[in-house]
Design a protein that fits this description.
This protein is mainly α. It has a single domain, classed as Glycerol uptake facilitator protein (Up-down Bundle), CATH 1.20.1080. It has 16 helices and 4 strands. Pfam families: MIP.
């Protein structure tokens, strides 16, 4: 039989050869299967991130933002700096003109009392026309207080306005004081001992022995403290009441500067014989600083009386004026129309 199938015997592969040639070995099959099987995705390694330490000094600001559409009418008023500058300028003009005329009325021939009254009135009229649209044209701490009580001026503006008015008034008085010729006081007193301070004292406000009536009568007649207090309260209340009424939105504001200027002039004529007519604490302070010591000792009355009078005027105006607008008297706002959308960001 071995001779009948020699080829078969010769062509039949050995079992070990067939496994080696046609079928992979178990180790190779395992390696191939491992190669064909996709490797599992590696899990991401998350490293802990240290939280930043809280800084106590860091302040986080919260802001509000909104968009103003194009075509919106935007109304803006003058800045506080502009308004304070206008108040200082107006008070400077008022004190410079009024005290300047009063100081040299004996040598200028302007008619004495009438010239002084018209000087103060015209000065406030010009100042209101010039810068009243910027600051409201107060030029007087009493007017500012009356306007605030009457609901016409913001309370936050009262102290800044007072400071600006004092600065303007004192600066004007200082210029007048330093320009007094050294020989003039003695010349006007016919050789008697006199100084620039005593000469400047003639324009300061006073009562009792320092009232103009007492000086004119050489001490024979004088106005007492009570009378001086009463007169200053009344004339200031009338003055502030006229201002609040003339600048009311229901009134013709174009005529307001003339009403205010004329009112100041005639009220000064009333009060000059009694106290030399204050109606304005800034004016009284400016003249007292450069006068003899008695002017400073009596200055308190010319703060108290005008402020009380202004408060009365503000309360009466508030009682009869329904919902007064906080328009700051004659101050005017600027209005414009936006042409593009505007993003407005404000601090919360």
């Amino acid at each position: 039989m071995s001779q009948d199938n020699p080829d078969k015997a010769a062509g039949s592969p050995e079992p070990d050869d067939t496994t080696a040639a046609g079928t992979p070995a178990p180790e190779e099959a395992t390696a191939a299967a491992a190669a064909d099987t996709p490797a599992p995705a590696a899990e991401p390694v998350v490293e802990p991130v240290a939280e930043p330490e809280a800084d106590e000094d860091v302040v986080v600001e919260e802001l509000d933002a909104y968009v103003v559409p194009a075509g919106t009418v935007v109304v803006t008023g003058p800045s506080l700096v502009a308004r304070l500058g206008a108040e200082a300028f107006g008070t400077f003009t008022l004190v410079l003109v009024g005290l300047g005329i009063a100081l040299y009325s004996t040598v200028s021939g302007l008619g004495g009392t009438l010239g002084v009254a018209l000087g103060f009135g015209i000065a406030v009229l010009a100042g209101i026309i010039a810068v009243g649209h910027v600051s409201g044209g107060h030029f007087n701490p009493a007017v500012t207080l009356g306007a605030a009580i009457g609901g016409r001026t913001a309370w936050k503006d009262v102290l800044p306005y007072w400071l600006a008015q004092l600065v303007g008034g004192i600066l004007a008085a200082a210029i007048l004081f330093i320009t007094i010729p050294a020989a003039l006081p003695g010349l006007l007193n016919q050789g008697a001992e006199a100084s620039s301070k005593s000469f400047f004292s003639s324009v300061s406000n006073g009562y009792a022995e320092h009232s103009p009536l007492s000086v004119a009568s050489q001490g024979q007649v004088e106005f007492s403290l009570v009378i001086a207090l009463l007169v200053e309260i009344i004339v200031t209340a009338v003055f502030v009441g006229i201002i609040l009424g003339a600048t009311d939105r229901r009134s013709a504001n174009v005529q307001a500067p003339f009403a205010i200027g004329l009112a100041l002039a005639v009220l000064i004529l009333v009060a000059i014989p009694v106290t030399n007519a204050s109606l304005n604490p800034a004016r009284s302070t400016a003249s007292a600083i450069f006068s003899d010591s008695w002017a400073l000792s009596q200055l308190w009355l010319f703060w108290v009386a005008p402020l009380v009078g202004a408060a009365l005027a503000g309360l009466i105006y508030r009682a009869f004026a329904a919902e007064p607008a906080e328009d700051n008297l004659l101050e005017e706002d600027d209005a414009y129309v936006t042409t593009d959308d505007v993003l407005v960001v404000t601090e919360r």
